[in-house]
Specification:
The chain is of the alpha+beta class and 106 residues long. It has helices at 3-7, 10-21, 40-49, 55-68, 78-95; strands spanning 27-33, 70-77, 100-105. The protein has a single domain, classed as Ribosomal protein L7/L12, C-terminal domain/Adaptor protein ClpS (Ribosomal Protein L30, Chain: A, 2-Layer Sandwich).
Length: 106
């Protein structure tokens, strides 16, 4: 086989496949759920520390969680969303709270 046979058409296929693999990752919403034990102050702390919210924004989300049962914490690529939800759950467990965070495809 000559060099022209090896490169004929393969270079375009490889480039197309690499381009497809680098497509924008799927995004996921992180949702925080209400429970009867986790304090409002702790929820605000988690929203500020893990989701980088201002105190005003964190209090608004906390009230949404409290009154509507669930609140939106942000939209992120899957790995980041999972990490933030896991950090929130771990912090809650260490503090003795059953706080629940879930992911939903955006």
């Amino acid at each position: 086989m000559g060099n022209s046979d090896i490169n004929n058409g393969n270079k375009t296929k490889v480039c197309g496949r690499v381009k497809d693999d680098l497509a924008t990752p799927s995004l996921f919403k992180v949702l925080m759920h209400n429970d009867d034990y986790t304090t409002m102050e702790f929820v605000v702390e988690v929203l500020q520390e893990i989701f980088c919210m201002s105190s005003v924004e964190a209090e608004k989300i906390m009230l949404t969680i409290h009154f509507q049962g669930v609140g939106y914490c942000g939209t992120f690529p899957h790995a980041i969303a999972e990490t933030k939800a896991s950090r929130a759950r771990l912090k809650a467990r260490k503090a003795g709270f059953p706080l629940r965070c879930t992911l939903e495809e955006a």
